[in-house]
Design a protein that fits this description.
The structure holds 3 protein chains of 3 kinds. By secondary structure, chain B is mainly α. Chain B is about 65% helix and about 0% strand. Chain C is built from 9 helices and no strands. The structure holds protoporphyrin IX containing FE and copper (II) ion (CU). Protoporphyrin IX containing FE binds next to helix 2, helix 3, helix 12 and helix 14 of chain B.
Chain lengths: ~120, ~625, ~230
């Protein structure tokens, strides 16, 4: 049995065949996509900068800002850091860290504040 | 073994070439050697921590003794706890992680061999840094969890806390690097055919432990940075005078601290999960249930930290929530215990020392687990908190659990690591003496705790009626020490006169038993193809195993055996980098700016050289036809 | 990144410790392009180093999260001034945020250029990234000087304590990032910056984008939300 067959057998066992040397750099993202993402990031920042000075938005400012910064976060992580195109396991690792951090520190903050410091 | 190719040597980046002797150990990147270094170092620190414990037990043997002062006792208690956890038990697990992981998954080394060496040197230097504090005006003295404001520069003038901060940071970096290294190794370097669900359960536990380290260490790193800023630069994180809140420390510490207890116990659970099947001659009962329970324990470990803070006044809602999450952990833990019991059930059991220690683990850990569930009931915790009842609990899980599990591992894998058998008769003697000594020492702590004896007191008046059980406990501590001595004698004897082990002394099940003891540098002459769990067993007894598919005739790696095997070259860089970091940390302790600067520059230079030097590689010719 | 050994890559992979003869021979040519050329793609189909970098970044979430929660938990608890509302300069920080975001864009273009072996472009964008990073740091230096003049020190109140540690540690990450990028740039003068170096560049890029992402969060929680008082 040659290498390729061994690899295929292996791939079958593992449930994801990547015997043909597929790898993470395979997906080509056109430059224009990056430029568009950069533009959107700049625009969102400008919007954020603008809305904090609008008194009428005060009541909804917190959710609004959170959504906007989450959008930026997702864009950078998804496109610039390639999570959208890479193997899921990378996104899985990062999501694990992110979710644990969010859960832990939201809980911690809530308990801490609840005590009244 | 013949070295076929060496790297060409260039100027500053000369690679070390010696294969034996002192420098070969200093520059090694071989996971097996690093494992052995971890092993001896951890054992040394176990003895150091043990001696500290004996001094404490002597001081407490009788009311109103003044063998050591109260201040000294504070140092002893802190250093004992810190040493046992960070310098003895965790690194002993790490010894097995390092040595066994590549063997168990059929690999030649870990993913980042040089980083692996770096982890070891940082651990060694961190341990040294912590312990030289005794010589420089006093050891850390605020307990192993260093509660604020006991650690503040207002209440704690000496350098002890600074040693503690810098030492723990070094150890933290070391553990973080290992965690990443092991996870990548487990994900990326399994032998062909070894799917995740065919991995030995030990490896699963290692994976869970590594993820726990990865995600919990940053919390204590941050807490230590905050403490450092408070002490060094007048920041106010824990300074009540400026509105700071000591409770923040408790939260951050326990966000790390609770996962930490699973970091300590999971490796032992992994070992027991290998030892029980081997000596029952049965596969592990409910493999997937054990695996999922392990993952669940690791996950839940992040949601229970506040159970260490039931008494700080968090209010009934928070206390209830954390009581419930804590109790939930008992479920997957119970699942594992029943699976281990069921593994024994109906097996043809061989009562080797390794099995005895595993049974010791099962029973003692269960006792510790039960008192743990008692603590988790917030109302009852108010009574037990900070008493000897808690001290009893955590020694049952730490010694009866973790350490007994690790001893099972030592008796099980020592022949693989050193090529010689430990004496079974001495081993059994050692086990029983340890088991008895352990219970005589620590069971009375339950009574003392319920009688109201607080932890971390250096003496007590006779009228309190605590004298009798304290004396019993001290006697027990010496019995326990005798057990450890017997073990040491056994090791010494075995290394000198021990019977040669041969590749498979236990009729083992996993891949490490398919290669010589000790294994050659390259581990596997041919990378195995794994087509089932317990692959070595399946190969020996095809009719007993349910192999899911026929093994391929040969594997891709065959050509390697003919053309030589590629291994990473040894390197000076890991120890150099660790030294540079340690110099910086030492400068930090003494607030010596030039020394810190030297450390930083040294670090930058070593990192640069490290990356320019690259991983390198030598090609060796496998010997024999093992 | 076409340099994986053979096509059956991963069957050989893990166990063989990835590095094939190419790597062994590359040693001793520390200046040569050789040893960056190999890639250690494992069972998951991802290079070891990349997997490791992502794990590290995941861990960093827990790291920065702790400082952020400390900042928020202590918000409004300072016993004396100066307060965030008095000091934080949103227009200026929006500008520095923009600079950092654009550095991320430059970074991703550098990586792309290297992957396509457009060496000159890669170098140009890499240098641009580092310079934009330095620009961000200058903003921060200016901000700190200004704040210290206004009486905000690390020890004056909780705001000073939590603000300087959070943004300072972020700034330290940026500084390390700039150092890393510049080191890659200098090395690229000797060994080039093409396919063979793309992975090294990509790793630095991941780190760089992460630092950017952390700043996105800090910018919102610390700066923008300060208008709410
Ligand atoms: C050789 C057997 C041992 C003996 C006789 C012993 C004895 C003691 C004693 C007397 C204390 C002080 C209790 C107090 O005053 O509050 C203590 C604390 C402690 N021990 Fe042990 N111990 C032993 C082994 C271990 C091991 C193996 C571990 C960990 C793996 C460990 C972990 C701890 C910890 C974490 C503390 C708490 C320290 C603190 O309060 O900050 N001990 N031990
Ligand atoms: Cu806990």
């Amino acid at each position: 049995m040659n290498e390729r067959e061994a690899a295929r057998a292996h791939g079958a066992v593992r449930g994801h065949a990547e015997a043909h040397g597929a790898h993470e750099g395979a997906h080509v993202v056109p430059t224009s996509t990056y430029l568009k993402v950069g533009l959107v990031l700049a625009v969102i920042t400008a919007v954020e900068f603008g809305i904090v000075y609008v008194p009428a938005l005060k009541p909804v400012l917190i959710p609004l800002l959170l959504i906007l910064s989450a959008a930026k976060f997702v864009l950078v992580a998804g496109f610039f850091m390639h999570l959208k195109f890479d193997r899921w396991v990378l996104a899985g690792f990062f999501a694990a860290g992110l979710i644990l951090a969010l859960g832990t520190y939201l809980g911690l903050g809530a308990i801490f504040a609840h005590r009244g410091g | 073994m013949a070295v076929l190719e060496q790297p060409r040597q260039v100027g500053l980046l000369r690679r070390p070439t010696s294969l034996t002797g002192f420098w070969s150990w200093v520059t090694t990147v071989d996971h097996k050697r690093i494992g052995i270094l971890y092993f001896w170092t951890a054992f040394f620190f176990l003895l150091v921590g043990g001696i500290e414990a004996l001094v404490m037990r002597l001081q407490l043997a009788h009311p109103d003794l003044e063998l050591v002062t109260g201040d000294r006792f504070n140092e002893l208690v802190t250093m004992h706890g810190t040493t046992m956890i960070f310098l003895a038990v965790m690194p002993l697990s790490s010894a097995f992680f390092n040595y066994m992981l590549p063997l168990l998954i059929g690999a030649r080394d870990v993913a980042f061999p040089r980083l692996n060496a770096l982890s070891y040197w940082l651990y060694l230097f961190g341990g040294i840094l912590l312990n030289v504090s005794w010589l420089f005006g006093g050891a850390p003295n605020a307990g192993w969890f260093g509660y604020a404001p006991l650690t503040s520069s207002v209440y704690n003038l000496g350098r002890g806390i600074d040693f503690w901060i810098q030492g723990l940071q070094l150890l933290g970096v070391s553990s973080l690097i290992s965690a990443i290294n092991f996870i990548v190794t487990i994900f990326n370097m399994r032998a062909p055919g070894m799917s995740l669900m065919r991995m030995p359960v030990f490896v699963w536990n290692q994976l869970a432990t590594s993820f726990l380290l990865l995600f919990s260490l940053p919390a204590v790193t941050v807490a230590l940075i905050m403490l450092m800023f408070d002490r060094y630069f007048g920041a106010n994180f824990f300074n009540a005078a400026k509105g700071g809140d000591a409770i923040l420390w408790q939260h951050l510490f326990w966000v790390f601290g609770h996962p930490e207890v699973y970091i300590i116990i999971l490796p032992a659970m992994g070992i027991v999960s290998e030892v029980l099947p081997t000596f029952s001659r049965k596969p592990l009962f409910g493999y997937s249930a054990v695996v999922f329970s392990t993952a669940l324990i690791a996950f839940l470990a992040f949601g229970v930290w506040s159970h260490h803070m039931f008494t700080v006044g968090q209010g009934p809602v928070v206390n209830t929530v954390f009581a419930l999450t804590t109790m939930t952990i008992a479920i997957p833990t119970g699942v594992k215990i029943f699976n281990w019991l069921a593994t024994l059930w109906g097996g043809s059991i061989r009562f080797t020392t390794a099995l005895l220690y595993s049974l010791g683990f099962l029973s003692m850990f269960t006792i510790g687990g039960l008192s743990g569930v008692m603590h988790s009931a917030a109302a009852s915790n108010l009574q037990q908190h900070d008493t000897y009842f808690v001290v009893a609990h955590f020694h049952y899980v730490l010694i009866g659990g973790a350490l007994f599990g690790l001893f099972a591992g030592i008796y099980y894998w020592f022949p693989k690591m050193f090529g010689r058998m430990l004496d079974e008769r001495l081993g059994k003697w050692g086990f029983w003496v340890m088991l008895i000594g352990f219970n005589v020492t620590f069971f009375p702590f339950h009574f003392l705790g319920l009688l109201g004896m607080p932890r971390r007191i250096y003496t007590y008046p006779a009228e309190l009626g605590l004298a009798r059980w304290n004396l019993v406990s001290t006697i027990g501590a010496f019995i326990l020490s005798v057990g450890i001595l017997i073990f040491l004698v056994n090791v010494w004897k075995s290394l000198r006169y021990g019977e040669k082990a041969g590749p498979d002394p236990w009729d083992g099940r996993t891949l490490e038993w398919s290669i010589p003891s000790p294994p050659p540098v390259y581990n596997f002459r041919r990378i195995p193809y794994v087509h089932t769990r317990d692959p070595h067993w399946a190969r020996k007894y095809p009719h007993l195993a349910q192999a899911e598919e026929p093994p391929p005739a040969a594997t891709a790696a065959d050509s390697e055996a003919e053309h030589g095997i590629h291994l990473p070259s040894p390197s000076y860089m890991p120890i150099l980098l660790a030294l540079a970091i340690t110099v910086g940390a030492f400068g930090g302790v003494f607030r010596n700016v030039p020394l810190v600067a030297l450390g930083v520059v040294g670090t930058i230079v070593s990192v640069y050289l490290w990356s320019v030097e690259g991983e390198g590689g030598i090609v060796v010719e496998p010997e024999g036809d093992a | 990144m076409a340099e994986h050994h053979g096509t059956g890559g991963h069957a050989l992979q893990g166990p063989a410790r990835g590095p094939g003869a190419a790597q062994a021979l590359a040693v001793g040519h520390p200046q040569g392009a050789g040893h960056h050329a190999h890639s250690e793609v494992g069972v998951t189909g991802i290079d070891n180093r990349k997997l490791g970098m992502w794990l590290f970044l995941a861990s960093e979430c827990m790291f920065f999260g702790a400082f952020i929660v400390a900042y928020i938990a202590y918000q409004g608890k300072s016993l004396s001034g100066p307060t965030p509302e008095e000091l934080l300069n949103i227009p200026l920080t929006s500008l520095s945020t923009f600079v950092l975001l654009m550095s991320s864009l430059a970074m991703v273009l550098a990586v792309q250029a290297a992957q396509q072996d457009r060496q000159a472009d890669a170098r140009k964008w890499l240098l641009a990234t580092a310079l934009l990073g330095l620009g961000f740091l200058s903003f921060q230096a200016y901000e700190y000087t200004h704040f210290i003049h206004a009486g905000l020190t690390l020890s004056v109140n909780l705001f000073g304590t939590t603000f300087y540690t959070l943004t300072g540690l972020h700034g330290l990450h940026v500084t390390i990032g700039v150092g890393w990028l510049l080191a890659l740039f200098l090395r690229s003068l000797k060994v080039g910056l093409g396919r063979a170096q793309a992975l090294s560049l990509e790793l630095a890029g991941l780190y760089w984008h992460f630092v950017d992402v952390v700043w996105i969060v800090i910018f919102t929680l610390v700066y923008l939300m300060s208008v709410l008082g």
